Amino acid sequence: MSGSRYRAWDRLGVSFDVFFQRFLHGEVLSGGGELMRQVLQPFITSEQPEHHFLLLECADGTADVYLHGDDMMANQVSGEEAWDLLVRGAREAGWVILPIGCATCITDEAQHEHLPEGLDEGAVLVATGNELLSVIEASRMTGGVS
Predict the structure, then answer these.
(1) How confident is the model at residue 144 (pLDDT cuts 50, 70, 90)?
(2) Residue 77 lies in a domain
(3) What residues contact residue 39 under an 8 Å CB cut-off, 6+ apart?
(4) Cβ distance 44 to 53 under 8 Å?
(5) Residue 87: domain span
(6) C-alpha dihedral sign at 11, 15, 20, 26
(7) What is the C-alpha separation between 51 and 68, in angstroms, rounded?
(8) Which of 13, 43, 130, 139 has CA 20 to 30 A from 5's CA?
(9) Is residue 124 part of a domain?
(10) What is the 3-state secondary structure (H, E, C) of 107-143?
(11) What is the Cα–Cα distance from 85 to 36, expressed in whole angstroms?
C-alpha cells in the first residue's frame, strides 16, 4: 500500500477506537503495557498521566493513545508511521489488535489459538501498519466500520 492510501484515509476524517490486549486460553492476560510504552516513548510529545493519555507525533501523523498496564486504546490515528508504530508495539507487547467493527488482528500466529471464542473467527495476521489499515478499510467497504 502506498503513502497515498494513508493520505486518502486521513482525508476521510474517520476516527474510531482500536483496542489492544493479550489473551491466554481465551482469557484476558495482564501485562504488556511497559513493553508498549518502550516502543512508543520516542514519539510521546504530551501526556496526561491522570487519564493514561499519550499524544504520539510521528513524521507524517499523530495518534491519541490511552495506555494502561494491561491494555491500550488508540484513536485519531493518522499517518503511515503511526500505524506502523502501533503494530510494532502490539507485537512487542504480545497484544492482539481489536479495531472496532473489524476482524481481530494478531501479530503472531501463536496468538490465534488463545483468542476468546468469537474473536478467533476471521482473525488476520498483520505485520505492518499497511496490513492493519487494509483490514480496517476492507471492513469499511463491507459496512463494518462507519
Answers:
(1) low
(2) yes
(3) 85, 88, 89, 92, 93
(4) no
(5) 3-141
(6) negative
(7) 10
(8) 43
(9) yes
(10) CCHHHHHHCCCCCCCCCEECCCHHHHHHHHHHHHHCC
(11) 10
Place of cell 507525533: 57
Residues 23-76: pLDDT tens digits?
999 999 999 999 999 999 999 999 999 999 999 999 999 999 999 999 999 999
Q: Label residue 142 by pLDDT band (50, 70, 90).
A: confident
Domain count, the chain: 1
Q: What pLDDT is attached to residue 28?
A: 97
CATH of the domain at 86: 3.30.310
Q: Is residue 126 part of a domain?
A: yes
Within a domain: residue 146? Answer: no
CA distance 143 to 102: 9
